[in-house]
Specification:
92% helix, mainly alpha, elongated
């Protein structure tokens, strides 16, 4: 149980670190989007992304992880008691956690994709119209200014893409060690239950398997959050690049 509490704290800290980093990364990427002419996308996506990321982090640490704790507690009670059997309720909470994670990931990706697809086309058309107006209505230097704007936008796009890639690497670095630790502990508990089966009581075997399942659920939570943030970052980059393609 001491091990379990330490792992819970580690998962919470990792998710909070991811949320704090994303709240730092998103404004930087959005600012670079503005320099590439994606004004509509930047204005719409920044408040939506920051709100959704903060909400997801608080929802997972405040509701999902306590549900895992409840599921584990009910499972332990069922394993050590012959009279109180609430194993089905424990499985219900565990399955609910996995189902809710899937829904959250789907909603997040769908929201960013749909909103970004609509705004990127507006940005592309607006920027193309502005460039045509500058080239046509400013005498002598209009064409030169239009080409210079394209050069600046291209350099800003390269910088934005590089920032997004570095952000993804940092996200992986934040969760790499906790994921490895969870994977190792999960394997140890499963291996322990297999090795102890010939010599230990069946309740101990079931308890070790229960803890292995719990660590597997926590691993799924941490992987889902990190994948969600990686997908969100890559979608933001893709959406801003789509605006340039429309131009």
């Amino acid at each position: 149980m001491t091990n379990f509490v330490q792992i819970l704290d580690m998962v919470k800290d990792s998710i909070q670190n991811l949320v704090n980093f994303m709240n730092t990364l998103i404004p930087i990427v959005i600012t670079l989007m503005l320099t590439t002419g994606n004004i509509a996308s930047a204005n719409l996506m920044q408040p939506i992304l920051i709100f959704v990321i903060t909400f997801m982090g608080n929802f997972i640490t405040g509701i999902i992880i306590p549900l895992v704790l409840i599921s584990t507690s009910l499972g332990i009670i069922s394993k050590i008691s012959d009279k109180i059997q609430i194993d089905k309720l424990s499985k219900f909470f565990k399955n609910s956690v996995i189902w809710v994670l899937g829904v959250i990931l789907t909603i997040f990706v769908g929201l960013v994709s749909v909103e970004g697809s609509l705004s990127s086309s507006v940005d592309g058309i607006t920027a193309k119209t502005a460039k045509a107006a500058v080239s046509s209505f400013i005498p002598v230097v209009g064409k030169i200014l239009g080409d210079a704007v394209d050069t600046v936008i291209g350099c800003s796009s390269i910088l934005k893409n590089a920032t997004g890639i570095i952000g993804i690497i940092i996200i992986i670095g934040i969760v790499a060690l906790p994921i490895i630790k969870l994977t190792v502990l999960m394997g140890i508990y499963y291996l322990g239950s297999a090795l102890c089966q010939p010599i230990a009581d069946s309740k101990i075997i079931s308890l070790l398997e229960q803890m292995g399942d719990t660590f597997k659920t926590l691993l799924a939570i941490l992987c889902s959050v990190s994948v969600m943030f990686i997908i969100g970052t890559t979608l933001v980059i893709k959406i801003s690049n789509s605006g340039m393609m429309y131009r």
